[in-house]
Give the backbone structure.
Amino acid sequence: MRTASMADHWIENHKRDSWRRQAKASGYRARSAFKLKQIQERFQLVREGDCVLDVGCHPGGWAQVAVELVGDAGTVIGVDLQACAPVEGAVLLTGDITEAITQERILSELDGELLNVVISDISPHITGKWDMDQSVAMTLVADVFDFALPLLRKGGGLTTKLFQGIGVEELIQAVRPHFSSVRRFSPDASRNSSSEVYLVCKHHTPWKAPKTSVRTRYEESLNKILGGDEIEDDPEPVASTFQVRRRKKPIGEFEEH
Ligand SMILES: C[S@@+](CC[C@H](N)C(=O)[O-])C[C@H]1O[C@@H](n2cnc3c(N)ncnc32)[C@H](O)[C@@H]1O
């Protein structure tokens, strides 16, 4: 595989600055707004009047784009660990998407309505240890699927950021039965297209959903490739052939009673 040269880095930085300038000029809060715009251009995920959940919405770039796409008749609910400045036309909640209290607040905002689309740009806090960050991020993505799928309409769509590395194929396999189309897409606006990729899932097929959660199936297939299944929970005791040799008592030693 070719390693990134100085020229590649220069091009990446130049592209990043160019998207940042465009974001500023167009009034978007984040460069990432263009990633959603490019996903939309390619896959037409969101339609006017849709009900959209934006997971990991801070600082609000995707929420701004989503509000434009759904129009006045639509609904946009965003959620993030960090409080987000208001976006007109969207309801933005602060909380952890994996926690029951946040999930209940989303349900109460929905008030029985189902989602047409879930857009998730979620990325956990980066520690710098790539393997660990990537594995935490992928488990978080599996949790987003498990929360969002029961709320998604038949025929609905979901896009989420993935982090290239171990487990990507396994997660895609775990998600496949839930949609009739699951595609990977790297928007031009992605800073580092080699590690950031979006999964775009269309046409939710709830009647095909397996009984076990996405996370369980994802972790089971990950264990298979990583060999984790070889560890038994409660191994049967096995007779040992090891023998303790009795030492002869040295002369002069007394037995205690
Ligand atoms: C790349 S940013 C999202 C940018 C956003 N799409 C935009 O255009 O402005 C990723 C966000 O995911 C959020 N996040 C990470 N873990 C989360 C969790 N468990 N629950 C909710 N949000 C989370 C982070 O706080 C961060 O703001």
The helical segments are 6-26, 33-43, 61-70, 100-110, 130-148, 168-175, 214-226. Residues 31-229 form a domain with the Rossmann fold fold (CATH 3.40.50.150). The longest helix spans residues 6-26. The mean pLDDT is 86.
